Each structure stands twice: as structure tokens, then as C-alpha cells.
Amino acid sequence: MKARSNFKTYGADRHLSFCILLFFVVSVLPSHGQIDTTGKGLVSLVDTTGQELTGQNDTTNKALNNQLDTTDQELQDEKTPKRYLSLFEEEDLLEVSLRFDVSKFLKKAERDQTFDGIMTMHFSETDSLESKVTLKYRGNSRFERCRYPPKRVTFKKPIYEVSDSGRIKSMKLVNQCQQGSAYGDYVIKEYLVYKLYNVLTDTSYRARLISLNFIDSENKRKNITQYGILIEPERLIEKRLNILEVKNKSLTQRQMYPSMIDKLAIFNYMVSNWDWSVPGQHNVSVFMSSNPELASQGIPIPFDFDLTGVVNANYAIPLPALGLKTNRDRMFAGICRTREEYHDELMEFLDKKDEFYSVITDFPYLSNTEKRDITLFLDQFFDQLDKPRSFDNLIDYFLANCKDLN
User: Fold this and answer.
1) CA-CA distance, 202 to 193, in Å (whole number)?
2) Strand partners, 224
3) CA distance 405 to 230
4) Beta strands 207-216 and 243-246: pairing type?
5) 38, 139, 185, 355 — which has fewest CB within 10 A?
6) Which residue positions in the chain have pLDDT lower than 50?
7) Are 177 and 164 in contact (CB under 8 A)?
8) Torsion sign (Cα): 49, 52, 55, 59
9) How many CB atoms lie within 10 A of CB 256?
């Protein structure tokens, strides 16, 4: 009875939060396509040129109404969960099996194909959870380049993270691009980039490293074992941080909380990640506070780090237009700030230097050679922060290469 009560309370709280936000959007955002100049409305109404984002109100209202309808349906459909999991609360290697038509999946005949399967999470030799799932391809570059593209896993019946986190209906699954130990290391290193960003801020995706078994349901192929990553679903992030996802590809860095987008931009410089963009929401999810008084700016959270210099994958080839020779050539793509603002943000990175390095050196599933490679690469960034002159030179570089969106 207590678990059922908790679930109903969560649903009621979420329903109330959406209602408050919907009222805020309708009452505060400008009507008839006018730009809000009070500073109290959503900054996302204006693009970098100052032009209106047409249809913003209708799109936002429709999205919120859909979320309300979904929440109502969940409350009607769901029974008391049989068990709560700790997928993203624990960090030990989790064994997961996927049984599906592997041969058909590898053909990649259609981008939008779906595949029925069974996912089994093995928590111990005597404890496992089996779920019917639907698999779908995800990712752009990895769909084209990889024999084993990443997937979105949708559960026929939802599973539940620890009682205060909520319901999991679908989540992203990253697996090795190809077979072989080198590609296994790529997945492990991408997982570590998620952990590095967790050091910087709780406003981040949590990830779980898994040992993933592919089992062909048609018995045409031998079983395959790879490393993989489960990515925290947006729904859990919403619940954990009391925020709501916003899907609007017209947003820019100017419409994000300054400290959050600045951390993201400097972090991507640190790990040499050039494959991101707020416009188009490319490898960046955007959220907003569910508190109307705080919902004036976006909250960006990055994901998909396989092309970073930390991972150093052999298929990570920068676009020619970027002017980068290798994926380990760093570039800064953040919004322009003052010298003082860049200084303060960089000092936060310097303060967390030991924590960043501990993520790498204390990790048990990576060879010492690979660990040393990553730490030497991070040294290139932190060496610039050790002396006043090189520190100033880095800020000069940021000022010379930042995006002027004001």
C-alpha cells in the first residue's frame, strides 16, 4: 500500500507541476506572435537574429498538453511496481542480455525499423529481470559507420528506478561500433566522459556500464558479448532535478543559463568534443525548470561523446569545415563572455582537477596504458591553467574564437 501511495503522489505532483507550467506558458508568454521584452517570459522565443520563433506558443502548449495526457494515462494503466531497480545509483558492471533477430538488425535495411526482443538484466547469479522490449536504431554517424549501431530500447511494460526516481519506459543503449578490444575501450572511455561531466555538475546524464550479450533469436549467429552503456532516460532526469525537457531546435546558447552553457562549452573544449550544437539540439538536450519563476532560460545537458578526443576513436574524423586536423585538436565553440566570466568558470575546472583525474585512474575496467593516454591528454588542458600567463592565453583564445550571439 505504501508503494502504491508513493506512486499516486508522484503522479499527482507531476500533474500539478505540468498544470502550473502550462498556466505560466499561456499567461506569461506573449500572444499573437509578439516578442516578450519584459525578461520574464521564455527567452527561447527569440532566435539569434531577434526574429520571432513562429508557432512557439502552440508548440509548447501542445507538448505540455501531451505530457499531461501521458501522465494521466500512466496513472490509469500502471499497477504497483513489482520491484525497484538501481540502474543509475550503482556503478558496478551490470550484465545484460538482448535476445532478438540479430541478423536482420545488422542488415540495416530501413532506418526506422523496429525489432521485438527480450532484455534480461542479470543482477546476480540468482537474481534477474526479464522484459519484453522493442529496439530501434538511434544515432546519426554511428548508424552509417558502425556494424552494430546504438539503439533505443522501449519496454513493453515499464520498469522502475529507485522509488523516488520514477518510471522507465525507454532508454538509450550505446554498444560497441564493431567487435574487438579497441572498440570495447572506446565504449569504456565514452562512459568515462559521462562520469567526468558528473564531477562537474549533477545536471548531467548518469550512465551505467554494462557487459552486453547479443543472442540471436533465430539461432543463425553465435552469441556476441560487448561493452555497452545505458543512458539515464530524460524522464528520470526530469524527476531527479525537477525540470522538464524542451524540444525546440531553434534555441541557441544565448537562451541557456549562462553558467550552465559555459561549463558545457569549456568541458567540451577540455575533452575535445566538436560534435555538439544547441541549435538543432545536436547531442545536447535542453530542459527548463518546472518552477515558473525559474523557467526563463534553458538548461543544456550534453550526451554522445564517442567522437571526443578522450575516446580517440579511429572513426572520429572532424568535418573539414572545422579546420581540425585530428579529433584531438581542441576547439572552443562557446558563447562570448567577459574575461572575468571565463576566468571564474576555468577556476572551477581547476578546483576539480583531482576529482577529474580520479575518475580515470581509479577505474577498474581500463588498462593502465589507456588511462595514461587519457591523463596525458587532460594534462594538455590543465597545464594551461597552472601558470598565470598560459591561463591568460587560454582566455585570449576563448575571446578570439567564441560565438558572438549578443
Assistant:
1) 14
2) 214
3) 35
4) unpaired
5) 38
6) 1-12, 16-63, 66, 68-70, 72-73, 75-77
7) no
8) positive
9) 23
Q: What is the pLDDT of residue 146?
A: 93
**Residue tagged 519584459 (cell numbers):** 38
> pLDDT (tens digit, 9 = 90+) per residue, 309-353?
999 999 999 999 999 999 999 999 999 999 999 999 999 999 999
Q: Are 287 and 245 in contact (CB under 8 A)?
A: yes
Looking at residue 23, its pLDDT comes to 41
For residue 172, give the DSSP letter: E
**Residues forming a β-bridge with 299:** 287
Instruction: Give residue 238's Cα distance to chain centre.
Output: 12
Q: Are 152 and 172 in contact (CB under 8 A)?
A: yes
Question: pTM higher than 0.70 for the full model?
Answer: yes
Residues contacting residue 365 through CB under 8 Å, at least 6 positions apart: 93, 188, 209, 227
Write down the pLDDT at residue 217: 97
Q: Which residue has the cell 573539414?
A: 320
Q: Determine how β-strand 94-100 pairs with β-strand 207-216.
A: parallel
52: DSSP letter: B
| Cell 530542459, residue located | 287
Rounded to an integer, what distance in angstroms lies between the CA atom of residue 13 and that of residue 276? 34
pLDDT at residue 101, as a whole number = 97
Q: Decide: 158 and 78 in contact? Cβ < 8 Å.
A: yes
Q: Helix, strand or coil for residue 170?
A: strand
Residue type, 70: T
Query: Hey, which bits of 139-185 come out as E strands?
Result: 151-161, 166-175
Are residues 335 and 265 in contact, defined by beta-carbon separation less than 8 angstroms? yes
Q: Are 381 and 391 in contact (CB under 8 A)?
A: no
